[in-house]
Amino acid sequence: MKIKYELLKKEKNTKARRGKLHTNYGTYDTPMFMPVGTLANVKTLTPEELKEMNSAVVLSNTYHLWLRPGADIVEKAGGLHQFMHYDGPILTDSGGFQVFSLAKNKEKDIVEEGVHFKSHLDGKKLFLTPELSIQIQNKLDSDIAMSFDECPPASASYDYLKNSVERTLRWAKRGKEVHNNEKQSLFGIVQGGAYEDLRKYSAIETVKMNFEGYSIGGVANDNESKEDMYKAIDYSIPYLPEDKPRYLMGVGEPIDIIEGVIRGIDMFDCVLPTRIARHGNAFTKYGKINMRNAKYKEDFDPIEKDCDCYACKNYSKAYIRHLIVCNEALGGRLLSIHNIRFLIRLTEELRSAIEQDRLLEYKDQFIRDYMQKEK
Question: Where in the sequence is the domain holding 120, given as residue range(s)?
Answer without folding.
Answer: 4-270
